[in-house]
Write the structure tokens for this entry.
Amino acid sequence: MRPCSAEELDDTQELNDPLWRRDHRQDAGDNSEEPSSDIRPGLKNLGPALLVLRGMLQLSAGEAARRSGVGKSQLSKYETGKELPKLPSLQRVVEIYGLDLAGFFALVRVLDRISAKRSALLPSLELEVLGQFTTPAEEQALSELTAAVVRFFHAKFEARVQAALESSTRKARERRGADE
Amino acid sequence: MSKKVPSVRARRRSASQEPCIFAYLPRVLRQLRGTRTGAEVARGSGLAQAHLYQLEDRPVRYYPTGRSRPARPGKLPSLGTLDALLRYYGVSLCQLNKLLLEAEEASRGDLEG
């Protein structure tokens, strides 16, 4: 059993961050004055990852809930990040998307990095994530899936940015028209 | 004739009876703690010490007075708690699957041996 080194895991470096420690203590219930957040820093993209996977398979929420044996509203809570799933529930949900938990958490990490850097995924990062899988077939399958997820995520993100840009230009034009 | 789809409750019941890989999680958590004390790990990970002990398997213990304390299986942590603990141990959630499979193999080897 080999615990990974600090260089391998960027997540562990957050332990040295005093801000993370404060949030962490609040989450653990040490400070009852301020409301604590249920979602921990490393699990922020768990909901979006579930949503992206479901979107890729073009499954409706009802269908995904029916196949996984989780309630529809509960699945919605997981996807929107309102609640963290219990481990067996998460496993059941992830299984219908054809992934195991290791693969799923690798994807969550990829999404974490994309949202943190707001840039294209570096090939080295992808390799680092995939390096934890042993068989070439697994690596190949996960590599394809990761690429598909990243494309989907970027498409969504770009569409949202495009819509925001268009709406702001339209508003600016209307304002200019009103001034004239 | 359409095939009858089992209800959500029936599916949940059958899923809870399936062998779950997380059955080995308490053992993995105990192995990760190693020689560190519970207080040290609890302080570092932000959990309560009693909570941490509940998550780990406890083997039977015999005292010299003849009294014995029964074995107790560990509880399944929530995802947030597990994330906090694994962060402290420096293990990512991605690697957990591998550790669980190793623990499963080891326990199978113990049974056969």
